[in-house]
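Bug #77: duplicate submission created two jobs. Keeping one. Sequence:
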Amino acid sequence: MKNYLFLLVAILFETIATSSLKASEQFTKLIPSLITVIGYIAAFYFLSLTLKTIPVGIAYAIWSGIGIVLITLAGIVLFKQIPDLPAIIGMLLIVAGVVVINVFSKTSAH
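Kept job's structure:
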């Protein structure tokens, strides 16, 4: 269970870093640029802890699925980037795939 907590922390750092990347305006703003670099370092550190026990494919599927949803929410709130219906449907399919992997795959149990 601790490894899934590490994965969640990695995803949160990645979400913060990616949101800051947009705000950094191609690394021309210092504070968002620093948040981006520090956030990605922290995200990959916690992801590396996760990979000690969770298979890389499973961890990346969870990372991608949850990350897409969180980045989309950050885009809506911070940047007023509203996804259209096909984008929302696509994201729901990705999340459904992550759920299927975690509920039904024996790979995720390793």
